[in-house]
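Recap from last week: sequence in, structure out.
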Amino acid sequence: MSQLTLYLDTETEAKMRQAAREAGLSLSKWVAGLIREKTSDDWPESIAKLAGAWPDFPTREEIHVAAGEDLPREGL
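Predicted structure tokens:
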């Protein structure tokens, strides 16, 4: 496990301490969670829950039919 020295201005430190306190976490756990969140390769759960949220959204097939014939590509 690594240790990190972090320099913060007074206002930012106060906000961090307040956020950690409200989350019921130590400062280390709060900062580690924030770093994990910001470096994650996964979609946030709030975005993943949007799948299927628009029942009238056209399917891929419907979009392709409406688009008509594709144009020839250059260089192919």
